[in-house]
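Apologies for my clumsy wording, but could you write out the amino acids of a protein and the tokens describing how it folds?
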Amino acid sequence: MIIIIKKRLIVFVLACVLATLVFTLSTATPQPAGELRILRTVPADKAEGVPLYPQIRILTDRPVDWAAIRLEETGRGKLIPGKMQVSSQGILFLPEEVFLPDTRYRVTVRAASSENVTPPLQFVFTTRSMENQVWVDAKLGRIHTVTVYRGKFPLKHMLASGGKPGQDTPYGMYRTKDRGSSFWSERFGEGATYWVRLHGQYLVHSVPKDANWQTKEEEHAKLGLPASHGCVRLSDADARWFYQNVPPGATVIIHP
């Protein structure tokens, strides 16, 4: 009789344990199929010698549904505006300004997929040094401008006109090449003064001149707006200054 009771007791205990286990499994919080993970950043954390106009890329292991990026200069806390795109491969951030040379920047990123939101990730990078070199920032955004720097310090800020729609000035990084005091284009029936070559037929030069070598005032009035056939136009005085003060081999960054 005692043996039978013990066997029944053991069976009862096992049944209770099994029931508890089944209840626990059925009521446990379901785990997501996988969590969004950031695989790599470009630039990498603590990278040095980064170009003055990099694309910020955050590569993930699955498509991103939502993201937020904060880009700032660490010394002054200045925020850098930009445009962001999310895709199946991660996040792309295009800054609206060039970076200053030999300067440290911090990126803070949050991202979410359909399964989860990542905790905030921060990484920093330092841009390349330009020492005492002259370089040029040509910003062809809502208002077209050209700013000439020596190292970190701006020397001159100018209104400009890049290419009009369909004849856009190509974005990129170039170096100044040969130059001349004037040219005449039979194709367009106009000329210009103080030209400096950037790439192929793309130049920095004055506002166009007519057949009498008079400034076309209607074109001068368009400075700050897209108006050229692809070159970068400046006022007569600014074109002369650029010609005289930006040396051959100077870096020119053209961006939106």
About this structure: Helices lie at 2-27, 217-220, 236-245. Residues 134-255 form a domain with the L,D-transpeptidase catalytic domain-like fold (CATH 2.40.440.10). The first strand starts at residue 38 and ends at 42. Confidence is low (pLDDT under 50) at residues 1-7, 9-32.
